[in-house]
Fold this sequence. Notes:
It is an enzyme of class 3 (hydrolase). The protein is of the alpha+beta class.
Amino acid sequence: MNVISPEVTPADDSLQRLEQLADISQRLLERARALGASQAEVSCSDERGLDVNVRLGEVETVESTRDRGIAVTVFFGQRKGSASTADLQDASLESTVAQACAIARHTEDDAAAGLAEAALMAREFPDLDSWHPWALAADHALDLALACEAAGREADGRISNSDGASAATSQSLSVYANSHGFIGRERSSHHSIGCALIAGQGDGMQRDGWYSSALARQDLESPEAIGRRAAERTVARLQPRSMATAQMPVLFSPEVARSLIGHLLGAVSGGALYRRASFLLDSVGTQLFPDWFQIDEQPLLRRGLRSSAFDGDGVATRDAPLITDGTLQRYILGSYSARKLGLVTTGNAGGVHNLKVAANAGDLVAIAAQMGDGLLVTELMGQGVNGVTGDYSRGAGGFRVENGQISYPVDGITIAGNLKDMFAAIEAVGSDVDRRSHVQVGSILVGRMTVAGND
C-alpha cells in the first residue's frame, strides 16, 4: 500500500516572504550606492525543511531546519568585495554592506569584474512549475521511512540488516537583484524517500539501496516500491567475483552514466578553461562524440529539476544545444568566465540547468544483449579522474555480461581509459533515463576500456 497520502496544506505565505526578501535586497542596493559602489548585487535565500531517519524499525533522527542568508557583492570600478549574514536586523544588514565596501576598497582591480551586461538581463519569468510544497508532519514522514525500510527488509530472506531509511522535504525561496534594476524571484520544492540495506553474513555482506526524489510528492515512487528495489539491488550483489584484466566494452548504468556527462561539463566550464586546467581547451567546433550524439540544455522545462528563467548573474536563460552531431557547440560560461576568455556569457553562471542526452538505443537489458561480452558498471569509487589530461581510472563494481546476459556480480576491479577516447567510443545511449538528476541520461555503452581485476 502506498502511504503517501494528502495532508491539509496550511496557508502558503511564500509570496509574501519573497516580497520581504525583495524589499531587503532593494534596501541593500540603495545602501551600497550611497556608500559609493558603482555596481552591486544581492542574493537572498529562505529555506525550510524536514528530514527524518529510521533504522531497524526505530527512529534515529528528526531534524527540522530553517535557514536564511543574505549575500552582498559590491564593485568599485573593477574592485570587488563580498560579505554575507544570516541576521536580518537592520544593524547587521548595514554592517554587511559596509564590510563588502571595505573589502572592495582594499582589493586589486580585476578586468573581468562587474555585473553582466544590462541588456542580457531576463525580462520574462514564466511559471516553471517548480513549487509543490508538502505539509509533511514529522509523524507522517517517519511512517513513510518505516514503511520503506520494512518493505525492503521483508522482500528477501537474504536481507540481514539495514543502514536505514529516510524521508525528507524542503522548500527554497530566493531573490537575486542587482543595480541594473533587475530583480528575480524563485520558489522551488524538493522531496525524497530512500533506503539502504545489507544482505548476507560476515565477510560476504553486501550493501546497496535506492531512493526517489522529485519536486512534487505525487512524482515520488511509493515507499514500498523503493524498499523492494533497494532489496533487489542489494541481494543481486551477493557472492561477487573478480575478473581477469582485459580490454572490453563497458556499460554504465543510468545512475553512474551521468558522471561521464559530469566530466564533460567540468571540462567545458569557464573556470577550468580560463585556468587552462581542462583537457578540452579550444574544443568548440571539435567533434568529441559519434555523429549521432546530442546534448541539449532546456532551462525553461516545466517541472525540471533545475529550471530557471535566469542564471546567477540575472542573465536570461534559453534552450540551446551543447553537443550537436557529436560536435561541441559552446562552452558553459557565466559573465566573469566569459570575460576572462574574451567570449560572451552563455547564461550559465551557477552551472547548467536541465540537460537531455538523446537516446539511440533501448534500455539497459537491450544494450547488454547488443554488447555481447563485457562489464556492466553500477557503482564507481575513488576520484581517479585528471581534468587536465582526461586520464580516467576508477574503482568499480557491477556485473559481468556474457553472451548478452547479465551473469554474475563483480567487484574489486578498476576501469581505465582517457575521457576523449571514451567519448569517441560511445556506441549507445539508452532510453532508460534516470530522472532523479537534472542531467537526463540513460545507460551509456563505451565500446572499449581497460578493465583490471585480480584474476
